[in-house]
Amino acid sequence: xTDLRDDANQCFVCGPDNPIGLKLTFVLEGEHCVSSFTPxxxxxxxxxxxxxGIIFSALDDVMxxxxxxxxxxxxxxxxxxxxxxxxxxxxxxxxRSWCIKSRRNVASMAAEMRRAxxxxxIAECEANFxxxxxx
Length: 135
What we know:
Blueprint: E1 27-29, E2 32-37, H1 52-68, E3 73-83, E4 93-103, E5 106-115, E6 121-133
């Protein structure tokens, strides 16, 4: 099996070797996986508004990294995402994920994105991840 530390170096969201990636870093804090991110002007959909796909990608990865940092490779099976408000580019956000429940090869996860300056909820989601292998 591939060493998990090198397994995602090209990931669009967290891969340090992806030249066009977001390069987010994730850490475990107790029962949560957390990260922060500031979307740039080139991450927009409409001028000055962060593209929803960037928001989804960041939320998807904070959930996947909850598992990854615990030694599991997993892929998204289903995601229910709710956007609460738009996110202006240049606005820092905090990401947080947690596990709702886990059984055999499926983990039910949740995540949220909040503005760093006022804690406003930008988006929240729940997803099922299929665990594809473990150490």
